[in-house]
Amino acid sequence: MRTNHLNRAAIAAILALAFSATSRAQFGPPPAGPPKPAKEAALEDITGYWVSIVTEDWRFRMVTPPKGDYPNIPLNAEGKKIADAWDPAKDEAAGQQCKAFGAAAIMRVPNRTHITWQDDETMKVEIDSGTQTRLFHFKGTPSGDPSFQGYSAAQWLREGRSGGRGGNSGAPGGFMKVVTTRLRPGYLQKNGVPYSANTTVTEYYDLIKEPDGAQWLVVKTIVEDPMYLFRTFITSTHFRKQPDAAGWNPTPCTAR
């Protein structure tokens, strides 16, 4: 009798497992809970004060190059025509001193950057050079009038999911991808190298931590402009984390 009871119990357990597997196959796993807000789901903490470390393209970034000096930028014929006609006095007269401080170029401008969370789904990036503010939206769709900083859509990605980020070693957790559209025309370089309203800027933000405690933010920027560039323009810009706001000095845009 006891053996029969054990056999019946074993059969019942097997049937229960089979029913459970069949149910999962038919109806899928139980629904996941609501997604976490971007601030809570952040794969790395990149908030704080950062300062540009200029180790490449010094003469194009630290001073305004002369007209026509743009050897590293893949301008097409129309782009060269506009760059060669650059006149900073005309920009000043038109109130366009900020054309070199738009989203396609601002991270290359030597600066101090302050990154905070404006709310649970929006990161605020304040830049003292040109007194610019960028907002990275983790929710929503591109909207609003075109502006120098445009509309930036952000997302967190784990290592190996971006398919083409390349280059940076990054942290084991992940990184942030930002795609900016709805831009006003501006300059990729302060000496009038143009980008158009059709430009898309894709950025990857990687946090790198050194054994001595130093932290670096590496920003890979990919600029696509079918109007003035014959291929993508790619740069990698480095920032070192600061312990506080020392040196923070908001200054207005300048055309020269």
Q: Can you put this structure into words, describing what you see?
A:
The structure is a single chain. The chain has 256 residues and is of the alpha+beta class. It has one domain. The protein contains five helices and eleven strands. A nine-stranded mixed beta barrel has the order 1-2-3-4-5-6-9-10-11. The protein has a two-stranded antiparallel ribbon with strand order 7-8. A hairpin with an 8-residue loop joins strand 10 and strand 11. 32% of the residues are buried.
Proportion of β residues? 25-35%
N-to-C order of helices and strands: HHEHHHEEEEEEEEEE
Low-confidence region ranges: 13-19, 21-25, 161-171
The gross shape turns out to be globular
In total, the number of strands is 11
Q: Biggest sheet, open or closed, and with what strands and sense?
A: 9 strands, mixed, barrel
Average pLDDT reading: 88
Please state the CA-atom Rg, rounded to the nearest Å: 25 Å
Helix content: 10-25%
The SS-based structural class is alpha+beta
Q: Strands of the largest sheet, in order across it?
A: 1-2-3-4-5-6-9-10-11
Alpha plus pi helix count:
5
> What distance lies between the first and last C-alpha atoms, to the nearest angstrom?
98 Å
What number of structural domains do the residues give? 1
Write the layout of secondary structure elements.
Blueprint: H1 2-27, H2 38-41, E1 48-52, H3 58-61, H4 77-83, H5 88-93, E2 112-119, E3 122-127, E4 132-137, E5 151-158, E6 174-181, E7 186-189, E8 193-195, E9 200-209, E10 215-224, E11 233-242
Parallel strand pairs: 4-5
Antiparallel strand pairs: 1-2, 1-11, 2-3, 3-4, 5-6, 6-9, 7-8, 9-10, 10-11
